[in-house]
Protein 1
Amino acid sequence: MNFPLKCIVVDDEPMARSALQRLCETHESLQLIATCEDATQALKIIEEQPIDLIWLDVEMPGLSGFDLLDRLPVTPQVILTTSKTDYAFDAFQYQVSDYLKKPITQPRFKMAVEKILTTVRKNEQIRSGDLKAIYVKNDGRYIRVPYEAILYIENTGDYVKIQTAQQTFVVYTTMKSLEEKLGAQFLRVHRSYIVNLDKIVDIEESNLVVASKVIPISRANKAELMSRLNLL
Amino acid sequence: MLNQDFLKELYGDDAAYAAHMFSLFQESVLPDIHEIGKLIDEERWNEVRQLVHKVKPTLAMVGLREMEAQLGTFEEWCLMPEKRSVLNRAWPVFYKDLIHVLPVVEAQKQRYLANVTP
């Protein structure tokens, strides 16, 4: 999915359309393709080109917002805009991204867009395989261990222990090999330890703490460690 | 009379946007509101409910939040046959109040227009 997100506004009420038009046009992450007075107009536009996001009213003459969603082969991100809160259950059933009560204030609009952008980026990462993880052999199968789950890695001779909050994986590999595979959020702070910088809770002169585990910091790695942290 | 805090939340400092919305209210919403009385007289309750539902949030967009809430009540009454006679009596009062407040809406629009940066 490319940014800005291509969006349409579907609402039978002119002021609501105009307000959403203005809000979309002034948001850098959105590209307004069209404003539609009814669901039939919207269906035509969606058939002609891919749409990433629909700002959708529920109660409209003719097809309702939900009727429109029923007719879409692929549902893009949808934000329901309605003056009633009675549709919350249906909104949940249709798995819409957000539900805004009209009239829509600027802060609420921005919040909804941010929510969509977060979802879209996350989906994009999943699609592109960008979510960082390693696969660890365990009992004859490979288990995915996301980087963010790793607390630290400890060298135990021929093996390394990958420690997460839930379990320990013992892997036959070297610290150097792991160091090369892991992302920038990891740092070797000692001959025997690589830590996830995001998991450090405390640093003292010659050691640090990750999830209650005290880990030594070698003198040679201290400067690098301090430079990688967001110190005040 | 108008909820200035809410208007600020809606339009921020964008006077041109606010003025445009106020103009749209006068041009496109008021005719719909005038129509509601006729539909009530003709007891076309489903159409009354649809039109009330449609215009309800627009009142808040010109700062008339209490009147928006009143329309919310009217919308519910349309679905309750026992309340329709109450609605019959309440609508003229609501309409009169609205007509009374329209000069204030116009004055607010003029203030926005005066603040539009070229």
Note: The mean pLDDT of chain A is 89.
Protein 2
Amino acid sequence: MPDAIDDADELYRRLVRTNIDREGRVNSSAYKLNGYPDNNISVNLARLTSIDETIAQAPKPGAGAGSLVARIPRENELSVVHDPLPKNEAHSEIRGTNTKAKCRILAERTSVLRMPDGSPSSDGS
Amino acid sequence: MSPIALSTPPAFATVSWTRDVQRSQEDCEDYALFGLSGIASYVRVPNRRFVAVLPDLQPVRETVTSFHHLDDNWDTYGGRPTTKLAVQAALSILDGVSHVPATATEVLPFHTAPLGNGGLQLEWRQGRDALEIEIGNTGVLNVLFDRPGAPQRFEERDAISLEEALQLLRTFLTV
């Protein structure tokens, strides 16, 4: 049964090395799927999962994770809905007409919770 | 009296030019002899090689090329490796930007990233402003300006030519 997602709810997004810029911040590429702004961005609803679990869902080791508050996509004319999957109760989607500009806004408002392996700041430097 | 270019610099000429370049200053300067009131002095002046000095973009080229060798699902969301067409387009942009008369720091992309459909993106920064060139898997070029301090923060140009992209990039880096 889908949960209602509040504006203050945290969303987790998996990150890979190239999603992180040289200053350790999230780049807009994190919100592009198939090379274009993703109209169905997969995220996890934080209160139904954990950072470790979100990262463990990656098919290979080394991924990181970032956090975005649901209010941010909503302020940018995107919706946020809980969309549970059989193997991932926390699965949710940011939906709507995404653009390159919105990808940059989502990226700049995403906090890195766990640096992916190989990213500029993954070694703490 | 006009300056006289010398083929061999004098050992005591110590005036130095400062510029954010990674090549030897010696390659980029000529020496000239000036005479004034019977006193001769040497000064260094920039030559054509100074003007043409290039930043070292080779590491960026190698990074971009490496995106072609990514594994399937590299981004954990089903991403495909960057196509040869996209890599080639990126290399053409890097070749074009290498001649922009900006400092080496500015000419080097701030960030490069592969995109899941086999494309990639390059980003340059000028202060708080950013220019993002997104290259699709067929080599199509889209540009996004992000000027946080401007009344209209974002400006997009889609499906532009290489020449147009380079012109936008030159303007962005030199204005």
Note: The beta strands of chain A are 10-15, 32-33, 36-37, 40-45, 64-69, 79-82, 91-95, 111-114.
